[in-house]
Amino acid sequence: MDMQVSFLDRLFESGLLIDTGVDGLYGRSGQFEDVIAAFERLIDRTGGPDGAEAIRFPPGMNRAYFEASGYMKSFPQLAGTVHSFCGCELDHISLLKCMEDGQDWTKGQEATDIVLTPAACYPLYPTIARRGAIRDEGQLYDLQSYCFRHEPSKDPARQQLFRMREYVFMGPEAEVMAFRQRWMDRGTEMMRSVGLDVHIDVANDPFFGRAGKMLVNNQRDQNLKFELLIPITSVEKPTACMSFNYHQDQFGVKWGLKFRNDTPVHTACVGFGLERIALALFHTHGLDVKEWPDEVRQVLWG
Amino acid sequence: MNAKIRELLGKLANLPVAVDTLSNEADLYTAGLSSFASVQLMLGIEDAFEIEFPDHLLNRKSFQSIAAIEATVAQILASSEAA
């Protein structure tokens, strides 16, 4: 924990991250953003030739899609919903009085149609399902979004609002599995090219409660999720900087993503935790990018 | 116990096929048992038999078939009697 606090303090002192007074909610300096931009260019160079369709959604998604996704079954503790004041003038006066008295003014806030995006690919599946049948050879998408997860922490690698870059492939089972394996190999190679010490391990999502234990065991038993781990704030518990998720035909069935012959597609997504990767680079090579090894600078900035 | 498990399966598992058509050994995942339905089933069985699944039995294998569920429940009941 001390190590985490001290890395966070060093990030604040150097100005790379900017304290907002809320754990896990930070501003970023131009230098921090430049590292993320450089790493995204490396992702583009690696994945670009695959010809994915790029789509950018804002960091909020349609609440109806969020509800249909089943996210609240698995991760109610992480979700963030957007609420607004929807009252009349009289309600407004009560609201201001409540704030003035230091009481809980948020009780009267009403849910809007927007939920904060929990993972960059969540808005994609219903969007693509609306377009009609998936081509037999499969379809590939390139996404990036700020994502929200309610898990306040002093660990700078566990932020509440962070960016996720993703590739999502929808298609036949064998091609989907091959896509995931290809990115496990590429991810390892990319991280090594920027001097990061990585390993890949089977993983699970943080499913909620006792029922979640069963989902964790199911996920691990079936090797549905792998993570690429890099030591940042702890060597014993390295941080997941990429994840490789195979959903079987679960999303195909759930969202009605089907081939022309009406069978559901299989899907997989590969995600880069952009802030985590930047933090891994700063932690490994130092807070001053001018001091980073030439070969790393060469890969990132040419 | 078999009848009770079949009843819970019919009520909670949301299978696309009728439970009567499944043999005791039939693979429930092939029959359409989803991860979430297996969790519902697990909670329903705990409630009905007044047992608690230990962590090491909270897995796919325990819910693979009606026979597997029966064996798992019997094992938990036996170990709670022994304790």
Description:
The complex is a heterodimer of chains A (302) and B (83). Chain A is of the alpha+beta class and 302 residues long. Chain A folds into 2 domains: 2-80 and 118-301, 2-Layer Sandwich (BirA Bifunctional Protein, domain 2), CATH 3.30.930; 84-115, no CATH class. Chain A has 11 helices and 12 strands. Chain A has helices spanning 2-14, 30-47, 63-69, 71-74, 89-100, 124-131, 173-193, 209-221, 250-255, 274-285, 294-301; strands at 17-22, 25-28, 53-55, 60-62, 81-84, 110-116, 139-148, 161-171, 199-202, 225-230, 239-246, 266-273. In chain A, strand 1 and strand 2 form a beta hairpin. The longest helix of chain A has 21 residues, at 173-193. Chain B has 83 residues and is mainly alpha-helical. Chain B is 52% helix and 0% strand. Chain B is built from 3 helices and no strands. In chain B, helix 1 (2-12) packs across helix 2. At the A-B interface, helix 8 of A face helix 2 of B.
Keywords:
heterodimer; A: 302 residues; alpha+beta; BirA Bifunctional Protein, domain 2; 11 helices; globular; B: 83 residues; mainly alpha; 3 helices
- Name the average pLDDT of chain B: 91
Q: Specify the structural class of chain B.
A: mainly alpha
Q: Can you count the helices of chain A?
A: 11
Oligomeric state of shown chains: heterodimer
Query: What percent of residues of chain A are in strands?
Result: 15-25%
Number of strands of chain A: 12
Strand order of the largest sheet of chain A: 3-7-8-12-11-10-9
| Radius of gyration of chain A, in angstroms, nearest whole number | 21 Å
Strand element count of chain B:
0
How does the helix and strand content of chain A classify structurally? Answer: alpha+beta
Largest sheet of chain B: none
Mind telling me which CATH architecture of chain B this is? Orthogonal Bundle
Helical stretch tally of chain B: 3
CATH overall fold name of chain B: Non-ribosomal Peptide Synthetase Peptidyl Carrier Protein, Chain A
